[in-house]
Amino acid sequence: MTERPISILVADDDPDDRMMIEEAFVENRIANKITFVEDGEQLMAYLRREGPYAELKDTAYPGIILLDLNMPKKDGREALREIKEDPELCRIPVIVLTTSIAEEDIVRTYGLGVSSFITKPVSFEGLVDAVRVICRYWIQIVALPPECSARRV
């Protein structure tokens, strides 16, 4: 796969889901850097380059964020709202990848500015296929804003 120099940030509290997502990226031979955070607070600290992520202050934002909705401390809905309200972060594409099939979640997250809403596939093969499509579209096809691939100064 031809990849642009963007990184992928995955926010998911379930260790099994994180492992399967990582394996799906490996299965698809996605060479882009993938970073995992475990809850909405870590997600926002990572994006704002705070605390343990302060050393990232001069690096590009992730090219895409895969966001679970149901996380502890700060759920994905609240984190999504904060991302989309922040003028520094609002252009980063956020893809909800969740177990939720609730129409309310779909409507609400699109209202908050999510780029896509994907229900987590039940099988590993389905997840591999979803990751393939996500990466093909967001890495190979779509033009992303410069802050997602350029070094910040």
**Count of discrete structural domains:** 1
Strand fraction band?
A: 5-15%
Largest sheet: 5 strands, parallel
Distance from first to last alpha carbon: 29 Å
Please state the CA-atom Rg, rounded to the nearest Å.
14 Å
SSE pattern? EHEHEHEHEH
Strand order of the largest sheet: 2-1-3-4-5
Instruction: Tell me which oligomeric state these chains represent.
Output: single chain
Q: Which structural category do the helix and sheet elements fall into?
A: alpha/beta
* CATH topology assignment: Rossmann fold
Shape: globular
Q: Judging by the overall fold, what is the CATH architecture?
A: 3-Layer(aba) Sandwich
CATH superfamily: Response regulator
Mean pLDDT: 87
Describe this structure in words.
By secondary structure, the chain is an alpha/beta fold. The chain has one domain: 3-Layer(aba) Sandwich (Rossmann fold). The protein is 39% helix and 14% strand. It contains five helices and five strands. It has a five-stranded parallel β-sheet. The model has no long low-confidence stretch (mean pLDDT 87).
Q: How are the secondary structure elements laid out?
A:
Elements: E1 8-11, H1 15-27, E2 34-37, H2 40-48, E3 64-67, H3 76-85, E4 94-98, H4 103-112, E5 116-119, H5 124-141
Parallel strand pairs: 1-2, 1-3, 3-4, 4-5
Quick gist of this model?
With 153 residues, the protein is α/β, with parallel strands linked by helices. 39% of the residues lie in helices and 14% in strands. Helix 1 packs across helix 5 (124-141), helix 2 packs parallel to helix 3 (76-85) and helix 3 (76-85) packs parallel to helix 4.
